């Protein structure tokens, strides 16, 4: 299990979705807490998350209509990969002036068009899924550009290393035919894999990796 290397500050704007500990109304999502039970997330912050849930600020990621992946340039062309198993979500204030996010991804759920490349990426030379089974993102702040665009800053823990990153967000709200409120988010950023201890095949394979998420998140109803 990945352990965060530094304490998540209690000054986070808003609240984080899906990490509620010992909250009866979220008993069906108890597994969401697992990646964070041994981390240094402040207990008061967790309590504030429950309050946000009660106030109706939670948007839970719907995995079957969301996508999370990355692409990287190599001598064989652009390599694209997608993670199939992930959980988490967003918490937004109605004023659109605050917001946070949390995502946990199962590394072993990585999938590509090539079985050989897929095995290599999961192996010790890259993600090392056996030793580091999860990728975790916890936001630390948000800068709103307008009511549909924002820059989401946070800590990305991958391959046992935590680094600060910033995702650029495009968002829109809608309602399903059943009347459920849904938030659609496009999130993009780029990182250097060497900063996360992945040096194999450098410089043949590009050091810069583009991360992208297409998320459907449904508003939680208590």
Task: Spell out the key features of this protein.
mainly beta; Lipocalin; eight-stranded antiparallel β-barrel; 11 strands; 43% strand; disordered N terminus
What does this structure look like?
There is one protein chain. This protein is mainly β and 222 residues long. 9% of the residues lie in helices and 43% in strands. It is built from two helices and eleven strands, in the order H-E-E-E-E-E-E-H-E-E-E-E-E. Strands 1-4-5-7-8-9-10-11 form an eight-stranded antiparallel beta barrel. The two termini are 30 Å apart. The N terminus is likely disordered.
Tell me the name of the CATH class.
Answer: Mainly Beta
Question: What would you say the CATH architecture is?
Answer: Beta Barrel
Low-confidence stretches: 1-35
How far from one another are the termini?
A: 30 Å
Anisotropy-based shape: elongated
Number of strands: 11
